[in-house]
Amino acid sequence: MDIVTLDLVGFLAATFMAALVAGLAGFAFGLVAAAAWLHILTPLQTASLIIAFGLIVQGVAVWKLRRALQWSRLWPFLIGGAIGVPIGVAMLRWANPDTMRGSVGVLLILYSIHGLVRPAMKPIDGGGAPADAGVGVLNGILGGATGLAGIIVTVWCGLRGWPRDAQRAVFQPIGVSVFAMSAVVLGASGSVDAETIRLFAIGLPILLAGTWLGLRLYGRLDEAGFRKVVLALLLVSGAALVISLRPGGAAAEEKFQKLTGAQIQARFAGMELTDQSHWGEVFERNGTLGIYSMGHKSVGKWRVQKDQLCVESGKEPGGGCYEVWLSGKNVELRNQTSSVPLGGVLQKPTDSR
Fold first, then answer.
1. pTM of the model
2. Given CB 3.0 to 4.6 Å as the disulfide criterion, which of 63, 207, 250, 333 pairs with 342?
3. In terms of C-beta density within 10 A (0-12 exposed, 13-18 middle, 19 or more buried), how is residue 188 classed?
4. Cβ–Cβ contacts within 10 Å for residue 155, how many?
5. pLDDT tens by residue, the chain, 353 residues
6. CA dist 86 → 61, 71, 145, 339 (Å)
């Protein structure tokens, strides 16, 4: 079995498990899927597929729970989210996404451990719609800045003490709305390539099977069982967020130095940027860009403009202008439209190119 086949098997297995978990608990699809996908796919492919598959998983679940939807309960969160998301996106210009993820991870760990150790907690009844809208704003800010949409609302629904169907009828429509908006943005920007579409088509039947099984298992849970499943997944999610932080924190950040335009030209001309496994981009000295991804080859262009590396990748994702940060051979391409930098290793082109 070759590496490409192994990667495909891993992709499908992760898709099934993520769909099963999301069907059972109503959230955590992205966290489960990304844990495996980021070892197989590019970050942009991972984000695109999480949005596309997440929209389907959440949409199917919301349809199953449509009789439990209460717009009087839902609208404060939607309005709050509409206010919070632009704030979160604006925060990308100065906030450290790793710090935000780490803080949320610690809070999730503390909350879930407390809930598991002390199963009976008095519900929060006060505040009404204004409190729910405030939670929606915070959820929108976190979602816009880090992509962790729905986590805060999920915790709040548990603190409210609502029945399991009522909880899912709140935090899942919120997830659908976020995924839908993100899908429109990605599609309009041309960030979805043919390989991502192929993976979507291959994974869709597996996704639906996992979702179906998760919903069947959900139907067998009582209120106490559902609460324990949610708390356990929040604990795992929090631990995953903390573990996923880049080693060294602020110290590691200091090792990366921002390159000037002249330094970018000198460093990149005739070199290859790659993850050393699935993709590589060769920066020819004449401005041609050779793009290699999962066995496919395409051609684009590159240039240096105002101390930024600008890439024209044609139909492939990843085009645009980026600040270049370098630490040894490790490179991060950063811009204000994404909280996650594009990372790779800068090396001489491999002979196989």
1. 0.57
2. 333
3. exposed
4. 22
5. 343 566 788 889 989 988 888 888 777 787 778 777 766 776 667 767 887 887 888 788 778 777 778 888 889 998 988 888 778 766 655 555 566 667 777 877 887 887 777 666 677 888 889 999 999 888 878 776 665 667 788 888 888 888 877 888 888 788 777 666 666 655 555 556 677 888 899 999 999 999 898 888 887 877 778 778 877 877 887 787 777 665 544 444 447 889 999 999 999 999 999 876 667 899 999 999 998 876 678 888 999 998 999 998 766 555 788 999 998 888 988 876 665 677 888 988 875 55
6. 27, 23, 9, 14
Alpha helices per DSSP H over the chain? 3-25, 29-37, 43-64, 71-91, 97-117, 128-146, 151-160, 164-188, 194-218, 223-243, 250-255, 261-268
Q: Helix or strand or coil: residue 289?
A: strand
Considering the domain 253-347, what is its CATH architecture?
Answer: Beta Barrel (2.40)
Q: Work out the number of other CB atoms within 10 angstroms of the CB of residue 298.
A: 15
Which position has the token pair 């604006």? 90
For the record, the structure tokens of 123 come out as: 């519900």
